Amino acid sequence: MRPAEAMGVPSSQLQELRAWQAARLASTYGDLLHDPGCVDAVKFFLTDLYGPQEHTRRDQDLARAWSILSRTLPRAALGLLERALELQTLTAELDEAMARQLAAGPVTQESYAAAYRAVGRPEARRRQIDLVLSIATDLERVVRHAWVGFALRAARAPAHAAGFGALQDFLERGFAAFRSMKDPGRMLDAIRERETRLCTALLAGGATPFGP
Questions:
Q1: CB 29 within 8 A of CB 118
Q2: N or C: which terminal CB in the chain sees fewer CB atoms within 10 Å?
């Protein structure tokens, strides 16, 4: 991934934007964060897929390990990793574009909404939502197979020794989070409805449509 400065975006500005977005997501899904059946999976998405931190190390791990993984992982797991990387790349592009459009000063609902509309790209925003739902669906399917958990644990030491620790930890966190889910459909429906509604309202303008 290209550093923010290489795209003409100060890293502090990009970090502030991502922190604001993480807080928005925590508010939007506050009800699920208090649901024992969803909390682990929601936290995984808020930190590992939509979080404010950089994922450069994990993405580099994936790029270097791809030739090995493509021969050893099942198709569903490979598809999951491909979409996770696509989501991270697309999110980074949109965040950088947003950061360039933000007005000076702290991020607010109004400044965020104005920057969102200025960037536009409705198809990319819809793709972002689709990727989140696709990743969640794949994770929910993968964790049904007990052997995947055994395989991940067996790969832990070799993966870290080979320098793929960030990628290995990401996979383990995702597996553990979705294994504990009681009602995957509830979270998926909430993401689809809330993020689509928010995207549509932001692009249309008018009152800032934040909240659960």
A1: no
A2: C
Based on its alpha-carbon atoms, the radius of gyration of the chain, rounded to whole angstroms, reads 18
b/e burial code for range 162-200 (CB count within 10 A of at least 16 → b):
eebebbbbbbbebbebbbebeebeebbebbeebbeebbe
Residue matched to tokens 């008018």: 206
C-alpha torsion sign, points 184, 189, 192, 197:
negative
What amino acid occupies position 201?
A
Contact criterion met (CB below 8 Å) for 132 and 140: no
State pLDDT tens for residues 149-191: 676 676 677 667 766 667 777 777 777 777 777 777 888 899 9
Domain boundary assignment for the chain: 9-204
Which token pair is 211?
A: 């909240």
Q: Name the token pair of 202.
A: 């932001």
